[in-house]
Design a protein that fits this description.
3-stranded antiparallel beta sheet, single chain, alpha+beta, 5 strands
Length: 70
């Protein structure tokens, strides 16, 4: 999950694996695989970076778990 900020400053956690696309013109809109749309304060680049960090943490945790069980 990544945490994003809506325009009214409320925070929402979204499943990064379910992001279908991101549009920025000028507001940033995150479109989910189910069609839900979130207008957020973060830039497209910020969201891509958050998703990359999320994915890196998942891989790192999987490796740690694998080492602990073998």
């Amino acid at each position: 999950m990544i945490v994003l900020t809506r325009l009214n400053n409320t925070r929402v956690a979204v499943n990064a694996d379910l992001i279908e696309r991101i549009q920025q013109n000028p507001d940033t809109v995150v479109i989910m695989a189910n069609g839900a749309k979130y207008v957020v304060r973060e830039t497209m680049e910020d969201i891509v970076s958050l998703c990359a960090g999320y994915r890196a943490r998942v891989i790192s945790l999987a490796r740690l778990h694998d080492r602990a069980t073998h």
